[in-house]
Amino acid sequence: MTEKPHLMIVEARFYEDIADELARGAIAEIEKDGATYQRVAVPGCLEIPAAILYALRSMDFFTARKRFDGYVALGCVIRGETTHYDIVCNESARGLQDLALRYALAVGNGVLTVENREQAWARASVAAKNKGGFAARACLDMIELKRQFRLYPR
Question: How far separated are the first and last CA of the chain, in Å rounded?
Fold first, then answer.
């Protein structure tokens, strides 16, 4: 019997209400699959890739900790009046993609990049687009793909 995956949910808490709704969708999807998870909070979306790298690298020093089989990145970036929006969107996405490719990680990207709070809620809402659930499902599907290629030990 194959052991169910253990996921790390990394939540950017800058917009706490939106982060909570994204997490609600992700957790429902993870639990539906029978997987387990641990939630980790970071201040904003730029910190998400670093948190994943910390968890990954911690295995070099503390192998007794249960390892993560995949990572779900959740957060929201709402356009403001400066170019900071573009930097946060691009760099957080680049950081996640770099980690996925460099370390063959299963990553579900649920970082919303929107123009306003209304768009954020439409995408975060479990009753609407449920992007948190979609990110968790993407992560679980990538773990299954790793199994098919024998990159996943369990």
Answer: 9
Burial of 48 (0-12, 13-18, 19+ CB in 10 A): buried
Kindly state the tokens that stand for 108.
């579900």
Q: How many CA atoms lie within 13 A of 90 on its CB side?
A: 5
45 known ligand binder = yes
Q: Is 65 annotated as a binding residue?
A: no
> Which residues are known catalytic residues?
84
Answer yes or no: is 109 a known binding residue. yes
What CA dihedral angle connects 116, 129, 92 and 43, to 10 degrees?
Answer: 70
Residue 61 annotated as binding? no
Predicted structure pTM score? 0.94
Task: Count CB-CB contacts under 10 A for residue 49.
Answer: 24
pLDDT band at 65 (very low <50, low <70, confident <90, very high): low
- Cα–Cα distance between 61 and 98 in angstroms, integer? 22
Please count the helices (runs of H) and the strands (runs of E) in the chain.
Answer: 5, 4
> Percent of the chain having pLDDT more than 90?
86
Say yes or no to pLDDT of 149 above 80: yes
